[in-house]
Amino acid sequence: MKTKLIIFFFISTWLALIVRVFSLSINSHSHYVKLSQQNTIKHEMIAPVRGEIVDIKGRPIAINKLGFRLQLAPHLTGKKNKEVLYKELEVLKKLLPSLSIKDMLKNYKKKESFYNHNYIDIVHFVPYDEILPVYSILNLRENIKIIPAPKRYYPYENIAAHMIGYVARANKKDISKDKLLGLIGYVGKTGIEKYYNNYLQGKSGIRKIQVNASNQKVAELSYSKADEDKKLKLTIDMELQTYMSKLFEGKVGAMVVMNVDGSILAAGSFPDYDLNIFVSGMSYKMYDDLASSLDHPFTNKLINGLYPPGSSIKPMLGLLYISTDLSSKWQVDCKSSLHLGGRTFRCWKRKGHRGTKIVKAIRESCDDYFYKGSLILGNHKMSTGLKRYGLGKKTGVDLPNEFIGVVPSRRMET
Fold first, then answer.
1. CA within 13 Å, CB half, 173
2. Is the pLDDT of residue 33 over 90?
3. Pair 230, 202: CB distance under 8 Å
4. Residue 178 has pLDDT above 80, yes or no
5. For residue 361, which of 333, 337, 387, 380 has the smallest C-alpha distance?
6. Quick one: fold of 310-388?
7. pLDDT more than 70, % of the chain
8. What integer pLDDT is reported at residue 253 of this predicted model?
9. In contact, 298 and 269? CB cutoff 8 Å
10. 3-class SS at 390?
11. DSSP 303-323
12. Judging by beta carbons within 10 Å of its beta carbon (0-12, 13-18, 19+), is residue 342 exposed, middle or buried?
């Protein structure tokens, strides 16, 4: 009996081993091949260059300044490599005096991890002119990598700032939505830069590299170029835009100049600000001064300002009058004032316009004509008609976060 049990146990053990070997070698073969390839083949994403923005005549509005990003090899914070880390930082400081060892060390420690085998960004941007004289020296150091890194630049600075918008460092929320931003580092935050961000930033390329156990490059297996440098041409004319900005110096307001086909030739919200400070960074005081200003320079008054329409609404009201309850022959005797509900509503002309029909009312902007016409037409018909003309709806302009105006009505809208 004991002999049978021993034989049974021996056969069962071998059968289990055979089944496990079969599972590993046959059933799980593709899985382990994939893991093996991941250990030996490294995929490097190639950052695309952000496309430029130009005006209707090809003048550059948003361009890229050529520069470089500096990286250090990982795993240099341990006891054995600590001296190497500080030595490399000192070399960088000596060759590039504008850099800060404290800031570089802070950036390094922020990303350093036992599980991270990629080089770590310690300086996000060094101008081309600064790094060119020392490029060959730094390129020979195996712990330092120099990566091309263009930086956004706005040559017109504050002109058309609210329309163009700006790019800034991508935060964790941005990166969680688009992994490519972790590589690029910058994303459109406002204006056209944000609205057309996906088009302007392009798509990354991929380089497949074979590496050894020490994560050292053995060979480049394949290379696919990034889809990049997509130019965006606007309808605005920067010459006209500059003239508009001069007219609004020291003033608060907004202005739009449109072509007969509806395209925007110039548009500005004032006061404005230099777009480059959001790329390079600004002091807390500078930001607080802008944010707390009573003139609201951060508010895009073109699409976020809600104001009474004023006399611009008169042609639409006039058309409603003569196409519904009133005729083109209907007229008022404008005596410059209308008493209603304990208030006096005045026309801009002190002596009044006297006998006024629709053509004269629009030509001379007679307030009294439209006051009295509105009393006949009524709130509901005015509200319904004005909404047909597009009031109370988004214009569809290609700028983000457009606000919607209000067209008052006494009836609940469904």
1. 1
2. no
3. yes
4. yes
5. 333
6. Beta-lactamase (3.40.710)
7. 92
8. 93
9. no
10. coil
11. TS-----GGGGHHHHHHHHHH
12. exposed
- DSSP E strands, 327-380: 332-334, 337-340, 343-346, 354-356
Residue 124 makes CB contacts below 8 A (sequence gap 6+) with: 69, 149, 185
Residue ranges covered by each domain of the chain: 67-149, 310-388
In contact, 96 and 74? CB cutoff 8 Å: no
Q: Which two tokens stand for residue 259?
A: 């072509």
CA distance linking residue 132 with residue 136, whole number of Å: 8
The sheet carrying 60-65 orders its strands as: 151-153, 60-65, 53-54, 232-233
* Residue 99 DSSP class: S
Query: pLDDT-derived band of residue 26, with 50, 70 and 90 as boundaries?
Result: low
Whether the model clears a pTM of 0.85, i.e. scores above it, the answer is: no
The whole-angstrom separation of Cα 86 and Cα 79 is 12
- The pLDDT tens digits for 42-74 are 777 888 889 999 999 999 999 999 889 899 988
DSSP helix/strand/coil, 172: helix
Look up residue 132 and give its amino acid: L
- DSSP character at residue 351: T
The C-alpha atoms of residue 332 and residue 126 are separated, in whole angstroms, by 71
Residue 409: Cβ-neighbour burial (10 angstroms; 0-12, 13-18, 19+): middle
List the Cα angle 69/74/76 in 5-degree steps.
115
pLDDT by residue (tens digit) across 234-245? 999 999 999 999
For 63, the 3-state DSSP assignment is: strand
What does the block give as tokens for 67?
A: 């520069």
User: What is the identity of the amino acid at 402?
Assistant: E
Strands (E) in 225-298, as ranges, are: 232-233, 253-258, 264-270
Question: What distances in angstroms separate CA 43 from CA 38, 194, 257, 307, one per listed residue?
Answer: 9, 29, 49, 53
Asked if 104 and 180 touch (Cβ cutoff 8 Å), the reply is: no
> 311-339: per-residue pLDDT in tens?
989 999 999 998 887 888 899 999 999 99
Please report, for residues 24, 28, 38, 85, the alpha-carbon distance to residue 19 in angstroms, rounded to integers and kept in the order given. Answer: 9, 12, 27, 50
